[in-house]
Design a protein that fits this description.
Blueprint (H helix, E strand, L loop, with lengths): L2 H26 L5 H19 L1 E6 L8 E5 L5 H9 L2 E6 L8 H7 L3 E3 L4 H16 L3 E4 L20 H6 L2 E11 L4 E3 L10 H9 L4 E11 L6 H22 L1 E4 L3
Parallel strand pairs: 1-8, 2-5, 2-6, 3-4, 3-5, 7-9
Antiparallel strand pairs: 6-7, 6-8
């Protein structure tokens, strides 16, 4: 089988996987209990990662209950699949996503918090919705860098969303992600999603990889009491940076494959 044919087969498998998931969330979701729905989300995310050829190598454990804010560096849209495969994680997304064909239904199934982000008032609403969700015992994941990077380092963190932790007195857990591949576990940039990259182009590029690993390192859970949002952001950045440095030290040299 030629390379293009092999990649085409993987694409067909992915489309079939998405179709099965869409049928379930569109018509069968309401019959599921919250626990069953969460199990379905985790199973679907694991299946998608498997089709892409991604193997998850987890160090430490993601706490499976809240109130908890999970804080991580951000490399790719695959980061979302990764965390969905590991636990009952909720993400924050712009409200427009809710109306997107197919993707909107998936986002709702994953209990995404849809927020308008057009003004300071909307920004305050983001924090309020996150605080309420955390007070209800949810686990919310955020990427405080505010953008993606190729994953070589950790960008500075924005402090705004940490206000939800101050208000809810939730706990915080740091995580770091590194994509590696090849016999030497080289640091790779192929899965990164940056700049003018499009989702379709990114998916096609990743489908062209035979197999790769996603290393994710989880830090300890810690309390947030007595700290303001800037202190929490700084502490979390240092933790993510340290976890990332440890992962990079064990990976091979950068493989220029993006």
């Amino acid at each position: 089988m030629s390379f293009q044919s092999w990649r085409g087969v993987k694409l067909m498998r992915l489309l079939a996987h998405m179709l099965r998931g869409y049928v379930k969330v569109r018509w069968a979701w309401q019959a599921l209990t919250p626990l069953q729905a969460q199990d379905e989300v985790m199973s679907w995310a694991k299946g998608a990662l498997q089709i892409f050829g991604a193997r998850v190598k987890l160090e430490g454990q993601l706490r499976q209950s809240g109130p908890l804010l999970l804080v991580s560096n951000h490399v790719s849209w695959m980061d979302i699949l990764l965390f969905l495969s590991l636990g009952p994680v909720r993400f924050v997304s712009k409200s427009e996503v809710q109306s997107w064909p197919v993707i909107g239904h998936f986002a709702q199934a994953c209990r995404t918090l849809f927020i308008k982000r057009t003004s300071k008032r909307d920004a305050r609403m983001v924090v309020q919705r996150m605080s309420e969700s955390l007070e209800d015992g949810d686990l919310i994941a955020i990427f405080p860098e505010g953008t993606t990077s190729v994953g070589e380092g950790v960008l500075p963190f924005h402090a705004n969303l940490f206000e939800s932790v101050v208000a809810s007195k939730a706990q915080v857990q740091a995580a770091s992600i590194l994509y590696v591949g090849g016999k030497e576990n080289s640091f790779i940039t192929t899965p990164s999603f940056t700049g003018e990259d499009t989702l379709v182009a990114s998916i096609w590029r990743i489908l062209g990889m035979s197999q790769f690993d996603i290393w994710v390192s989880m830090g300890p859970v810690h309390e947030s009491l007595g700290q303001d949002r800037r202190a929490l952001a700084t502490q979390s950045w240092r933790e993510v940076q340290e976890l990332h440095s440890q992962l990079r030290s064990r990976a091979g040299p950068l493989e220029h494959s993006h």
